[in-house]
Write a structure and sequence with these properties.
The chain is of the alpha/beta class and 319 residues long. It folds into 3 domains: 5-85, Orthogonal Bundle (Arc Repressor Mutant, subunit A); 93-160 and 274-305, Periplasmic binding protein-like II (D-Maltodextrin-Binding Protein, domain 2), CATH 3.40.190.10; 163-271, D-Maltodextrin-Binding Protein, domain 2, CATH 3.40.190.10. The chain has 11 helices and 11 strands. The strands form 3 sheets. Strands 3, 4, 5, 6, 9, 10 and 11 form a 7-stranded mixed beta sheet that branches. It is elongated and about 75 Å long. It starts with a helix and ends in a 6-residue tail after the last helix. 31% of the residues are buried.
Length: 319
């Protein structure tokens, strides 16, 4: 039986997209070329793996069993390629995914540390939301990703790096309206204050809703901002309150005059940042090395935020 890796890759893409045209486009090949490979694949196996319909396809029962085998084979091939590429440690080319609520605040320090370790290391950064990065990891389009726990799906494994606490942000007037609650600030006791959050799809929004104990349909929740920068400026202008990750606090406070910050009472709510890769790859020194570099960069970013926040609290008229 002569089954090729190309056929397995093509079949997996077809199973994922459920359409010959979309699968061919994702593979950057023509639709007829894909059809030929799938027919040869079926001829080798001696049975149909897909049911061809007018606008899409469906896997046959046999096709579903074949897909499970194909996924295992391709996962092992990815692991083998990764082992060969990283046999000398953290060197060569690194494809790093990172979510937007982390990227601007950790990348300068992280890239500087990576460059000081090996100036020849080529780092390619892919900034995207958690769901997209998880898909890229599983497909082998990126090597690792920096995101907040919990993991979004199966097939991934993570090593926790550091804790990124949440701060309450708002204008002086909005914060003053909270009254005595500022002395022991509880994220679930923000009264009827409007809370501004990032648009749907950002894991930070889900985390903030959970921390505040509010549902997505709450009358005082507005999920429309596309970035933390936009969110900070809206809040500084008095349109509501928001939760800002500690690592972003110093940067956004400098960029948005009028933005004031308050810490929550202990235990402070926080998100856990982790380095994530495909599951089953086994021990790898390069992954451990990268985790230590990113952990140091993250801890430095959060320490800066704490120092700035502490200094501003000693200055009259500031948070």
């Amino acid at each position: 039986m002569n089954i090729t890796l190309r056929q397995l890759i093509y079949f997996r893409s077809l199973a994922r997209h459920r359409n010959f045209g979309r699968a061919a486009e994702a593979l950057h090949i023509s639709q007829p070329a894909l059809s030929v490979q799938i027919r040869e694949f079926e001829a080798t196996l001696g049975a149909s793996v897909v049911e061809r319909r007018a606008r899409d396809i469906a896997l046959t029962p046999f096709g579903r069993r074949v897909l499970a085998h194909a996924n295992r084979v391709l996962a092992e091939m990815q692991a083998l390629e990764e082992t060969a590429r990283w046999r000398g440690g953290l060197a060569g080319e690194l494809s790093l995914g990172i979510i937007p609520t982390i990227a601007p605040y950790i990348l300068p320090g992280a890239l500087a540390r990576l460059r000081s370790r090996d100036i020849s290391l080529d780092v390619r950064v892919r900034e995207a939301r958690t769901e997209d990065l998880a898909s890229d990891l599983r497909a082998g389009r990126i090597d690792v990703a920096l995101m907040a726990l919990p993991l979004p799906c199966e097939g991934l494994e993570a090593v926790a790096l550091f804790e990124d606490r949440f701060l309450l942000a708002g204008s002086a007037a909005r914060l003053a309206a909270l009254g005595d609650s500022l002395d022991a600030l509880d994220p679930k006791a923000l009264g009827q204050s409007p809370i501004l959050l990032l648009e749907d799809g950002h894991c930070l929004t889900d985390q903030a809703l959970e921390v505040c104990g509010r549902a997505r349909g709450h009358a005082q929740i507005d999920t429309g901002a596309s970035s933390l920068g936009t969110l900070s400026r809206l809040v500084a202008a008095g349109f509501g309150l928001t939760l800002i990750p500690e690592m972003a606090a110093a940067t956004e406070a400098r960029a948005a005059p009028g933005l004031e910050l308050r810490r929550f009472a202990a235990p402070e709510p926080a998100r856990r940042i982790a380095l994530v890769r495909r599951a089953g790859a086994g021990p790898a020194q390069w992954f451990d090395d990268l985790a230590e570099i990113l952990r140091a960069a993250g801890e430095a970013a959060t320490k800066t935020a704490r120092d700035v926040n502490a200094a501003s609290r000693r200055t009259p008229g500031h948070s």
